[in-house]
Amino acid sequence: MDKLKIVQQANLKKGIPAFGVGDTVKVFTRIPEGDKVRLHPFEGVVISKCGNGVDVNFTVRKVSYGEGIERVFMAHSPSIERIEVIHTGKVKRAKLYYLRGRIGKRATKIETGVAREEEVKA
Fold first, then answer.
1. pLDDT tens per residue, range 15-57
2. What SS3 class is residue 12?
3. What is the pLDDT of residues 55-87, one digit of tens each?
4. Where are the alpha helices (DSSP H) in 1-122?
């Protein structure tokens, strides 16, 4: 198992901000278009986060034109350019799947508005 941990440590990304469930984040992904690469932002609320080491993934949900959109991102994926924490949310649940069934003001959560300062240690 030590060899596996050594390989995983080599593939960890540096500079991933510390964020949790309930935070509003903006994830910039690289999208190749011909010979150019463009950054596509996806902003929403983190409704779940699971895994450890290289296998950390998180689900981001946003409502666009009345339709809920969810994307699952691997935190250490090479296609992710950067992650920005917009707002820090104050929630009492580990998973916010209940936001899927709510609309309008009922889908809001309590936000503190202060971003976390520390970064995830690699």
1. 899 999 999 999 999 999 999 999 999 999 999 999 988 889 9
2. coil
3. 899 999 998 888 889 999 999 999 999 999 999
4. 2-11
Residues 6+ apart with CB under 8 A from 105: none
Q: How far is CA 101 from the centre of its chain?
A: 21
| Helix, strand, coil share (%) of the chain residues, nearest 5 | 20, 45, 35
Burial 46-77 (b: 16+ CB within 10 A, else e): bbbbeeeebebebbbbeeeeeeeeeeebebbe
β-strands 110-111, 57-64 pairing: unpaired
Handedness of CA 46, 22, 84, 26 (dihedral sign): positive
d(CA 81, CA 72): 15
